[in-house]
Design a protein that fits this description.
The chain contains 3 helices and 7 strands, in the order βααββββββα. It has 137 residues and is an alpha+beta fold. It has a single domain, classed as START domain (Alpha-D-Glucose-1,6-Bisphosphate, Chain A, domain 4, 2-Layer Sandwich). It is globular, with a radius of gyration of 14 Å. Belongs to the AHA1 family.
């Protein structure tokens, strides 16, 4: 299945964007789609071969799931390639536009259960929440 690509421009320097994207204390603040969801737990062993495990749940406890996998490759402040536990691949690229502007590009293999558009919308909602969090904090 053809990968899905989403991207966003963040008005912050790359070192801050990188840190907020891969630091568990920040991940729990932005890694969910809508205000009725949250990320109560995030663990990450940020190294090649390290595992990440983020718990996403509806605030009413009606549904939740783990987003987890292995980090395959890290190019410092450039890109991270990971493999989810379900076998799908994810790449996150960071591009310096200028000293205070960073582009984040996510490329991910879609899952079969949900439409491509639903997945694009959900992933973009999380990336947009990340963008707003980084710029406000």
């Amino acid at each position: 299945m053809e990968p899905i690509t989403i991207d966003i421009i963040i008005l912050q320097p790359i070192h801050k964007v990188w840190d907020y994207f891969y630091n568990a204390k920040h991940i729990v603040k932005w890694n969910f789609t809508t205000p009725n969801w949250h990320c109560p737990k995030a663990t990450i062993d940020f190294r090649e071969g390290g595992r990440f495990d983020y718990r996403l749940e509806c605030k009413d406890n009606s549904f939740g799931y783990n987003f987890s996998g292995i980090i395959n490759e890290i190019k410092d402040q450039e890109s991270v390639k990971s493999k989810l536990d379900d076998g799908r691949l994810i790449e996150v690229h960071f591009r310096i536009i200028d000293e205070n502007t960073t582009e984040v590009i996510e490329i991910f293999q879609p899952e079969a259960q949900y439409s491509r558009e639903m997945q694009r919308t959900g992933w973009y909602a999380i990336l947009d929440r990340f963008h707003k969090y980084v710029e406000k904090n």
